[in-house]
Design a protein that fits this description.
Blueprint (H helix, E strand, L loop, with lengths): L8 H6 L7 H15 L14 H10 L4 E4 L6 H7 L7 E5 L14 H10 L5 E5 L4 E5 L6 H4 L1 E3 L1 H7 L9 E3 L1 H4 L3 E6 L6 H5 L2 H5 L3 E3 L2 E3 L5 E7 L12 H6 L2 E4 L6 H11 L6 H4 E2 L2 H16 L12 H20 L5 E2 L9 H5 L6 H6 L1 H20 L16 H8 L4 E4 L4 H9 L2 H9 L9 H14 L3 E5 L3 E6 H13 L1
Parallel strand pairs: 1-10, 1-11, 4-7, 7-10, 12-13
Antiparallel strand pairs: 2-3, 5-6, 8-9, 14-16, 15-16
Amino acid sequence: MTPPDIATLGALKKSGYRPRGIRDELRQNLIEALREGREVFAGIHGYQHSVIPDVQRALLSRHHINLLGLRGQAKTRLARSMVGLLDEWVPYLTCTELREDPLQPISNRAKAYVAEHGDLAEVRWMHREERYFEKLATPDVSVADLIGDVDPIKAANLKLSYSDERVIHFGMIPRAHRCVFVINELPDLQPRIQVALFNILQEGDIQIRGFQLRLPIDVQFVFTANPEDYTNRGSIVTPLKDRIGSQIMTHYPEDLETASLITQQEARIAPGLREAIDLPEMAATLLEQIGFEARESEYVDPKSGVSARLSVSALENLYSTAERRMLLNGETHTCIRLSDFAGVVPSIVGKVELVYEGEQEGAHSVAEHLLGAAIKRLLPRYFPAMEKLKQSDPNNPYLGLINAFGEGLRLDLFYDSSDADYRKALEAHRPLLDFARNHSGKIDSNGFYFAMEFVLWALSEHARINRDKLVLGLRYSDLYAGLFSEQAENDE
């Protein structure tokens, strides 16, 4: 990351350097990357055949871009990745805060500096990582923040007129000259602030306090926004929409495999924890299915969306739940259990916006409902489907499991029990052990006991057995025994 060894304007001219606008720069570098088959937006999954081609088309067209989508759809990450298409180093003049191109100065001050010093004008180099600016749009953002304003103190000290360019305090956009500038949540900008962007987008110049200042700012704009029917706080004014070249719709992952890939990439798991704690494939899939269920749930507001951060936070909590249990038992290695998903609930309740029915149920109840719905949905992926099976059918593969509970078996699984006690408790249910062995073909080696617990939970979700929530764990018992005990408690 060493900048070129060129420190003066004369040396820069001799080097053969030719200036170009940032949108031309992005276009040419994208063309080279596509021709060479290089990955342009690394680390962004699920958009290879939808969003990324649209973004590439927009950049080839030299368009400003609006990324429209619900929360947690990698809009900002996508915008930040565009920096990788910029030249690694570009030269700039040190005499102004606008970091202008030495061969194409835009301010009067920079032009005067070049005229005075000629080929001895000082040149420095800016790395592409410095060419990214980001602003979260909030209702209190002003024109002065984004574009600039006249500084009366500077005018008084320099004894200059307010119409003199030198008294201007430039805002974020002029300071982002030759950079990628991202405005997140664009509809939150007040309409009068959005109007102030018209000239910059269309003509590349700015106006401050009513007097015309021809300053051809060169910026690649990327806006992000939630759909207007969700964000009731505001909207994008029509003339501004008209000046944004491409509006691109983002989306959530369309399959569990892609969602899991994103979660594994983004989750911040403590060093060494992945080696100490096994994550069965079934557990990782179940974690992602919860998010998919939430996006379809009648209790969750579909206009709000369910961020991919739900699965990321849930995975982090899942590892931490197993880690805590491992520490309490003095163990150095363990495996994720289905009962560990109790630790995932806090990650769910803070990531979903509930409709009225969901508020009535309560956030924790909705989170547990989503877990149960995910288990029911995934059951046929690993075991025989249960919906159409009759309990009286002698060929019902679950009959032995259900009858064992009917004969008085009760199974308690405690959240913090040691691995040895946990496995002993599951193995005590002989029909369950035999069932898991008979259907182990689709289960990875470290997910055997997770699968046994998965079957128990699925049976309870299908009302074949009873599942009670204890203070320290879960209890599985006969369905009717559970009903009788509940009736007895009510009678008392």
